[in-house]
Amino acid sequence: MRYYITIKFSSSSFFEISNNDEIKVSLKNKPERGKANRELIKILSRYFRVSTENITIISGLNSRKKIVEIEK
Fold it and tell me: Could you tell me the pTM of the whole model?
């Protein structure tokens, strides 16, 4: 399943699914050396109850808008 992710950076975190495939996430880590991407993958793995190895960022590694694929 593919999801379209919009990232915001804040000290408080939130996770919102707006449509079937659109997710808004607030991350605490700054986008330095992949820290924010790793935090995003951990949040998604907890929410969807899958291993972090089953989550792939398809596009947007250096962007606030990402496309993520989750294998169940």
Answer: 0.89
